[in-house]
From TrEMBL:
One of its GO terms (biological process) is mitotic DNA damage checkpoint signaling. The keyword Iron does not apply. InterPro entries: Kinase-like_dom_sf (IPR011009), Prot_kinase_dom (IPR000719). Keywords: Kinase, Transferase. GO terms for molecular function: ATP binding; protein serine/threonine kinase activity. Residues 1-277 form the Protein kinase domain. SUPFAM superfamilies: Protein kinase-like (PK-like) (SSF56112). This is Kinase-like domain-containing protein. CDD domains: PKc (cd00180). GO terms for cellular component: nucleus.
Length: 277
């Protein structure tokens, strides 16, 4: 059975079940939100796990599959693919988006070996992901630590090889593409309702500035989780999360400032670990 979204279960359609059969996959579990259902798939006879998002076609305002396809097309010029590999299956009543099952960022252990270097690298990848979106006039509108995943080990998904510790921003259910990008006074009058309410209010939201604010909160959450509480990092977070969206930096400035701060933090770490002469 396909679990219902508001207490109305329906059986799997034949074409949906055929997708799983052809992939030799078994549905293991599910979770639901207001706009999709997520199932875990186990590839029979292996330890491989995939995730499938079931997007009902009756939800005509949900374009996650189309957005992912467009973003993936735009990655051709990127040195590192910032979009998680995926497959889309167009069924009669739904679209199935199948992705590799990676580790949620919230599960990162603060006691992992080299955790502070991992945190610096993860923040870099998160900033690069948002920079990629904004450079193509996309705003994610639901950036949160719960919407980042990473590869615990080298992972294969179809023809894609995902290196260990690669980070991806996922869940593009609220994402939108605009006619212009950051710094052009784009606003939306209808806040889509992500994890974090905009501090300036929900009546007129600057989507790119909101992404920067949410990115700052995500970085703060990651540092708190891993107990990486450098004062310079807190100042950086405060710079991104100022209440007035007009005073927040654009993502290009965030990327530039972070590169400088990361070098400083790494130098400080090296100095602190050097034995005195």
């Amino acid at each position: 059975m396909l679990p219902g979204y508001i207490g109305n279960p329906r059986p799997w359609e034949e074409d949906e079940a055929r997708v799983f059969h052809n992939r030799a996959s078994t549905v293991q579990g599910h979770s639901m939100s207001t706009h999709c259902m997520v199932c875990q798939l186990e590839v029979d006879g292996s330890e491989t796990r995939h995730v499938v998002k079931v997007i009902e076609k009756e939800w005509t305002d949900h374009y996650e599959a189309e957005i992912l396809a467009d973003l993936f097309h735009l990655t051709s010029s990127c040195l590192r693919n910032p979009v998680i590999p995926f497959e889309v299956f167009d069924c009669a009543k739904s679209k199935l988006i199948i992705m590799p099952q990676l580790c949620p960022l919230v599960n990162l252990s603060p006691w992992a070996s080299g955790i502070h270097q991992i945190v610096l690298d993860f923040i870099t990848q998160a900033i690069e992901a948002v920079d990629f979106l904004h450079s193509h006039n996309y705003a994610h509108l639901d950036i949160d630590m719960g919407n980042f995943v990473f590869a615990l080990e080298n992972t294969v998904f179809g023809s894609f090889n995902i290196p260990k510790m690669t980070v991806y921003l996922i869940d593009f259910g609220h994402a939108r593409r605009f006619d212009s990008g950051p710094g052009t006074n784009v606003t939306i009058s209808h806040y889509p309702g992500g994890h974090l309410p905009p501090p300036e209010g929900e009546e007129s939201v600057e989507p790119f500035a909101y992404d920067v604010y949410s990115l700052g909160i995500m970085i703060e959450d990651l540092c708190n989780l891993t107990q990486y509480l450098e004062p310079e990092l807190q100042s950086f977070v405060e710079f991104l999360t100022v209440k007035d969206p007009q005073k927040r930096p654009m993502i290009g400035q965030v990327k530039e400032d972070w590169a400088s701060l990361r070098r400083s933090l790494r130098r400080g770490k090296l100095l602190n670990t050097c034995a005195p002469i």
